[in-house]
Amino acid sequence: MGIVNLSVDSFSGDGLAEPEAALKHARQLLVEGAEIIDVGAESARTNREPISEAEEIDRLCGFVELWKTAEHNGASPLLSINTWRPAVARAVLACGGDILNDIGALPTDENARICAATGTALLIMHSVGAPKVAHTHVGYGDVMDELERFFDEKLALVEAAGLSREAVVLDPGIDFAKQRADNLRIYAELGRLQRFERPILLPVSRKTVIGQVLGLPEAARRDAGTVACLVQGMLTGAHIFRVHNVRAAVQAVRVIAGVLEVEG
Q1: Dihedral angle over CA of 85, 175, 14, 97, nearest 10
Q2: Catalytic residue flag (residue 242)
């Protein structure tokens, strides 16, 4: 899953405010091996004010309209719409999109009902509290127990809203309302989420926890650490990796997949 940021304040410094430039970047990520493009118009950084729903809709729909008419070199990539606000999800999915990437922890069933009505897959990310608000005070007795409890609850909510669990992807929410030890524990024990029998997205790219371990405050310098987390994710059962540096990630995936094939 290649990342396209339609914003000027992306934490990794790769934001592209113009839809045409963002589309060009998305097409390059496809050339490098991305199979899903995840496009978002609002930075998740908590030290930035939210943009309006109207602006978010305008940015995303502008990109989606260009995406629909673009050539993708014979490939059939999926488009993921990264938003947590139901009004935005409803408006943008009417324009197009295959997946709703909801970083809002699904506090109600509204986004699930929108996905059920539009035939869109839903990516549920674990977090605590409202997006765009720092939750650095949050602690867990056992973060993996918390993830299992959370996904049990949210999958039941989704099914009650009329969306099949077969249309759901799970995201443990690295760096969201978690401390360094929590994030590292998730990387170590991600396999516990296999019991849900749903694809697991691991958002490994340039995360704060990588910077903490390596002493690298600059996000753009964390690609080697990103690859290390990706390899660990493959070994513990992750299925999708959300990354900025697609070329490096694809090479890592292919090598580890070759090793696992020999071992298997």
Answers
A1: -40
A2: yes
Looking up residue 175, the CATH number of its domain turns out to be: 3.20.20.20
Give the chain's domain count: 1
The residues near 20 (Cβ < 8 Å, ≥ 6 apart) are 66
Query: DSSP of 12-56, one letter per residue?
Result: TS----SHHHHHHHHHHHHHTT-SEEEEESS---TTSPPPPHHHH
Measured N-to-C along each axis, helices 86-95 and 110-118 cross at an angle, to the nearest 10 degrees, of 10
Residue 15 has pLDDT above 70, yes or no: no
Identified catalytic residue from 90, 132, 206, 207: 207
Q: Identify whether 154 is a catalytic site residue.
A: no
- For residue 44, which amino acid is it? A
Q: Which of 221, 242, 247, 254 is catalytic?
A: 242
Reported as a single tens digit per residue, the pLDDT across 82-109 is 999 999 999 999 999 999 999 999 999 9
Mean pLDDT of 38-46: 79
Distance between CA atoms of residues 35 and 12, nearest Å = 21
Percent of the chain with pLDDT over 90: 81
d(CA 106, CA 156): 12
Structural domain boundaries, residue 240: 2-263
Nearest to 70 by CA among 106, 104, 20, 32: 20
